[in-house]
Amino acid sequence: MRADAQRNYDRIVSVADDLVSRDGAEVSLEEVARRAGVGSATLHRHFPGRLALLEAVFRDRIAGLLDRARELAETGPPGDSLVVWLHEVNTYVTTSRGLAAALLAHGEHLAEDDTCGAKTAAAGELLVSQAKAVGRVRPSVSAEDLIVLVSGISLAVGGDSERSRRLLDLALAGIAPAATSG
Amino acid sequence: MRADAQRNYDRIVSVADDLVSRDGAEVSLEEVARRAGVGSATLHRHFPGRLALLEAVFRDRIAGLLDRARELAETGPPGDSLVVWLHEVNTYVTTSRGLAAALLAHGEHLAEDDTCGAKTAAAGELLVSQAKAVGRVRPSVSAEDLIVLVSGISLAVGGDSERSRRLLDLALAGIAPAATSG
DNA sequence: CCTTAAGCGGGGTGGCACCCCGCTTCGTCG
DNA sequence: CGACGAAGCGGGGTGCCACCCCGCTTAAGG
Lengths: 182, 182
Prior knowledge:
Two copies of one chain form a homodimer. Helix content of chain A is 72%, strand content 0%. Chain A is an all-alpha fold. Chain A has two domains: 1-48, Arc Repressor Mutant, subunit A (Orthogonal Bundle); 51-173, Orthogonal Bundle (Tetracycline Repressor, domain 2), CATH 1.10.357. The termini of chain A are far apart. Chain A binds a DNA duplex through residues 1-5, 8, 28-30, 33, 38-42, 44-45, 48-50.
């Protein structure tokens, strides 16, 4: 990639990061280009569609989540690590406007691609299988399910972190009262 | 309301119903107006904003859900009725493109208004309090939470009914294996 | 320094939400 | 039943958008 192209690419991602976190995933791509000091054609050449831009913007943050999953998998107790990680994902997704949209790219089967959602689900799979091994998670539950769930909650609550956290707790525990039988 | 105004209103809602269920909540309002045979100004006069139109489109379906909640509250076993009703809501919401968006109108506190979401949550409250009374639901869970959850799941899965149903089951039961002790 | 192609961006296209305002039609009342 | 005031209508305008075309610029290599 030519040096000027790389410079423009970086400027666009940086500006998009600011604007998306300020205004959400539906920012005007024109404005991103304007603030980045490039023509809109340049933006569209580098990023064919809004999703491609969002993927680039969140790539680093997602990478952080992946590292964190590996770290938790190695250090934490198998059952709790998954819950801790999902709450961290939830916080990330809820407080980063537009991330949920990026995670749900292609909406349905987010596997096989190298999209943010696919990579996140893959990282989660590690923790899920650990948790299954110690009987803390049903076999029918997949990491992809959980990522979709987190994303959906985040989409639904807007940016209300407290409610998002509460709904995730609810979904992980179920609606029934805690079984006091042990 | 003048007779012609009423006629236009009805035509717009009817056409919007078709187009939203075919193309989702993001239909072009211009196209709705075009197909309804009215000027776009007429549409915008009757419905100030996309959400107002969606509310009108789904009002009848929502009314059906409310009746169903009352019916289940009277006839069904308190614990199961809630689950049955939530699955019915889920099916409705997932198969009616755009309904989730309508239910999440104003996103955050959907109480107090007479929006679709508020009315649905109110109807659910009946079943929730029944279920709490028989110890099937934790006191900290509100009907509003559950409606937001259902809507979020629906948004996240696109139109995949089977997955939507599975995720709702998951969220209601929690991720842990079924307690075989009880 | 010169070539060449990768990359750029001004400006165009078609579509959108939303609004203004002169014209039409409805409902009412004499 | 006819006329009148107002409610309602919609063609057309504005400003914004995503996305693209194409002649010009400039980086990179010899």
